[in-house]
Specification:
The protein has 63 residues and is mainly beta. 0% of the residues lie in helices and 44% in strands. It has a 4-stranded antiparallel beta sheet with strand order 1-2-3-4, with no helix packed on it. The chain is globular.
Length: 63
């Protein structure tokens, strides 16, 4: 179920960083190009869309 072919996956993780107990990931929706940031800690997690200076979603130009 979780071992899908990479080409068929809708989301792609571009970078991962660990700052203290926080795990930060930049994730791109390959269908729309919209980028998200995910924060995972020992207490929970969150995810939000990344936006530019005008409040519009950041798009990955490579998708």
């Amino acid at each position: 179920m979780f071992k899908k072919n990479k080409e068929n996956q809708r989301f792609e993780v571009h970078s991962e960083e660990y700052i203290g107990q926080h795990g930060l990931s930049i994730i791109t929706d390959k269908t729309t190009g919209v980028q998200y940031i995910s924060d995972i800690t020992g207490m929970g997690s969150g995810m939000t869309v990344l936006v530019d200076k005008d409040g519009k979603p950041l798009l990955n130009k490579e998708t």
